[in-house]
Amino acid sequence: MAVTPPDLSLAQLRCFLAIVDAGSFAAAGRRLGLATPVVSKTIARLEAAHGVKLLHRSTHATSPTAEGEALVAPARAALHAMGEAARTLGARRDADGGWVRLTAPVALLRHCLVPLLPALARELPALRLDLRSSNERLDLADHGIDLAIRTGPLDDVPGHVRQPWFVSPWVVCAAPAYLAGRTVPDTPEALHGHRLIGFRASDDGLVRHWRFRAPDTGAAQRLTPDPQLVFDDGEAGWRAARDGVGIACAPLFLAAEALRAGEMVELLRGWRDTATAVTLLRRDTRLTLPRVEQLIGFLRRHTPALDV
């Protein structure tokens, strides 16, 4: 009976070739937009799966072993062939209407992407978008996604290319109706005793901490809210805050419109913490269709207005 060889992924081959070309794990990580430990684990899994050592590691340099040297040429050929296949399929897809499948968190899609659609229609009239709102981190390959918009750290996403879109701080807000007749908190500690609205993250099921940075010392502070209400839907929690139910901590891209309209009041503005990165994530450049590149260029030219 024939023995089926272990699976070999394109992400593993890209990591391997990047190390060979760059001469170190750290330099390869910078080329790929990955943390060094992610690159190291990818190679370790490749070597363990096939029972070979592919790289000599030292404190000064990294070089391929004999087995590694033998892998270089077929690895490059495999990536080239995959790139050609992607370009062929991309040309076919463009001919069939130029669909781009994009996923983003629900609130971000509604408040940052939908307002840009009129400008997108003017600048890229042939582009067709399949927008999928999800607060889960969908696997791009498994779901046929061309572009994902993600927030926060992305060190656990190998084989992908990241480009920054914008940064957004989290802001503590309340409706004027809620604040009427109440003492407005001027420090994070003063939030205790108020009706707080919490958000439960879908990835770990925990209620998110509220993070602050002291205006005088710059020291980071973290508040564990004792909420009267907890939502796993940021939009629903924000709606409750706008209706005067309590105080919420929300990303500025969600809060900006209501703050500009005077429908919400930002509290503790001087205590804003470091902004959270919003990132455009796609698969390796060799698999990127021209229309995806056009959409990325459009988004980077049109960042949300957060000057509140």
Question: What report would you give on this structure?
Answer:
This protein is an alpha/beta fold and 308 residues long. It has 3 domains: 10-91, Winged helix-like DNA-binding domain superfamily/Winged helix DNA-binding domain (Arc Repressor Mutant, subunit A, Orthogonal Bundle), CATH 1.10.10; 97-161 and 281-301, Periplasmic binding protein-like II (D-Maltodextrin-Binding Protein, domain 2, 3-Layer(aba) Sandwich); 170-271, D-Maltodextrin-Binding Protein, domain 2, CATH 3.40.190.290. It is 37% helix and 22% strand. The chain has 10 helices and 14 strands. The chain has helices at 10-22, 25-32, 36-50, 66-95, 106-113, 117-123, 176-179, 234-242, 252-260, 290-301, and strands spanning 55-57, 62-64, 99-104, 128-133, 147-151, 160-168, 170-174, 196-199, 210-213, 220-223, 229-231, 247-251, 265-267, 276-283. Strands 4-3-5-14-6 form a 5-stranded mixed beta sheet. A hairpin with a 6-residue loop joins strand 9 and strand 10 (220-223). The model has no long low-confidence stretch (mean pLDDT 87).
Describe the secondary-structure layout.
Layout: H1 10-22, H2 25-32, H3 36-50, E1 55-57, E2 62-64, H4 66-95, E3 99-104, H5 106-113, H6 117-123, E4 128-133, E5 147-151, E6 160-168, E7 170-174, H7 176-179, E8 196-199, E9 210-213, E10 220-223, E11 229-231, H8 234-242, E12 247-251, H9 252-260, E13 265-267, E14 276-283, H10 290-301
Helix pairs in contact: 1-2, 1-3, 1-4, 2-3
